[in-house]
Structure formats: C-alpha cells, structure tokens
Write a structure and sequence with these properties.
Elements (H helix, E strand, L loop, with lengths): L8 E4 L6 E2 H16 L5 H10 L1 H9 L8 H15 L7 H8 L6 E2 L3 H9 L3 E4 L5 H11 L19 H11 L6 E5 L2 H9 L3 E4 L22 E2 L3 H7 L3
Parallel strand pairs: 1-4, 1-5, 5-6, 6-7
Antiparallel strand pairs: 2-3
Helix pairs in contact: 1-2, 6-10
C-alpha cells in the first residue's frame, strides 16, 4: 500500500485510460462492414480519427474555431475521414450514429471492478476532454461507477490547459494536492502535476493495438505507478 498524504479524490482521464476506444471503434466498424458489405480497415480508420483529436483541439485553443465540444470536433474530423475510407455514401443518420460511437466505448476489463473498489475510499470522477453528455452516456452504458462527471466542457478549456485541472479541484471543494489525476498518458499527468495535483500512472500498452508499448517514464516520476485499476486499488488501500 502506498500512502499519499491527504488525497481525497481521484480524477481519471477516460479515453485510453478507462475505455478501449480503438477496440470499440473496430468492433462497431466491422459490424458496419458486415451490414453494408464494406471492406473498410477499421483499425486504420480508428487510428486516423484519434490522430485528428489533438490538432482539432489545438484549433480551439488558438482561437481558429469557437468553443466546440468534443462531439462537434469528432464530427468535423469524421467528415474529413469518410471520403478517404470510401464511406462518403453513409446517410446522415449513419454518420450521426458512427460519430456517437465515442459514447459507447467499452471499458478495459479491470476498469469497472477497480473503480468500484477505489470508490469505497475516494471520490472518483472523470477529468476528460469528452463533453458531459458523451461521458454520461458512456458511463450509463458501460456501468462506470463515477461519483461525478467533470469535463473540459464545464470550463471551456481542453487539457492540458491548467484550468482544466485546477477547476476539477475547485468543483470537488478540495485543494489541488488532495486530488490525484489517474491517466495512461504521461503528458496528461505532467500537466496535472504542474497544476498542483498528485499523479498516478496506469499504462495501457494495448491502447493503440497489439504490438505497441506504453510510453516509458523515469522510475518514480509519478506518485504511484500501477499495472491496472485493481493494482491501483491495492496500492491506494481500497
């Protein structure tokens, strides 16, 4: 068990840390292939869509786009991708359904039981760039036992903007050092630490599919490193 003084709440990155976005998109896409007689490489599609995520948020940060929530950004990116993958024949209803795949992402196997254990000792909340409706629908479908949904949408500032992290502590009524950010992405954790939060690294080597590895980090860089959420619960005494 790792003792982290005063931590009262855990906030979680969601895409890749809690849910398997890539595997979920591939599964739904392959079902669409079967239904419509398509031959789309959904692994390549999922990767391309996700690679557009950061640049689309950067456009908002730079003021090139007005505030646009993640559903809106995902749809903008989707419209660019469809012709590249031979999917420009999809109807508006089909496009909308595909865009909302992000609301239906499946959790990693340890996510729900691990969160349930952690929740017995800590407040557990999202801290995601996903919009509130997306995160709520995902939680409802996947059985994710959040105490609270916190989103960049609430402050109109995408991570790694410091206000995304400090506002989470404010919403929870806690000083930043009583909140621990949990993520599979070292850059997210470094930004959270710079904003005064504690940090827990839970690598997800399968986020980008088989054959990939988690980003290496220096030993001891973060307050806690765990194999998965069950190991995190062990280390945090939950």
């Amino acid at each position: 068990m790792t003792t982290i003084p005063r931590v009262q709440a855990l906030t979680f990155d969601v895409f890749g840390t809690v849910v398997d976005w890539r595997g979920s998109i591939i599964a739904e896409g392959e079902a669409l292939n079967r239904t419509k007689g398509l031959t789309v490489d959904w692994g390549a599609f999922a990767d391309a869509w996700r690679h557009m995520y950061g640049p689309s948020m950067d456009r908002v940060r730079r003021g090139e786009l007005p505030w646009t929530n993640l559903d809106g950004l995902h749809r903008m990116c989707l419209e660019e991708l469809l012709p590249r993958f031979g999917l420009d024949g999809l109807s508006e209803a089909e496009r909308d359904h595909l865009n909302r795949v992000w609301h239906r992402l499946r959790p990693w196997p340890d996510a729900v039981p691990g969160l349930a254990r952690l929740r017995t000792r800590y407040v557990v909340a999202t801290l995601s760039n996903g919009n509130v409706a997306l995160l709520t629908n995902m939680a409802k479908r996947a059985g994710l036992p959040w105490d609270c949904i916190l989103s960049a949408e609430l402050v109109r500032a995408y991570k790694p903007d410091p206000v995304a992290y400090t506002s989470a502590a404010t919403f929870l009524g806690l000083p930043p050092d009583q909140v621990m950010m949990v993520a599979a992405h070292p850059a997210d954790l470094r930004a959270a630490r710079a904003a005064g939060l504690r940090t827990a690294y839970v690598p997800r080597p399968l986020e980008w599919g088989p054959g990939h590895t988690a980003e290496p980090v220096p030993e001891g860089e973060f307050d806690v490193t765990a194999r998965d959420f069950l190991d995190l619960a062990d280390k945090l005494g939950a």
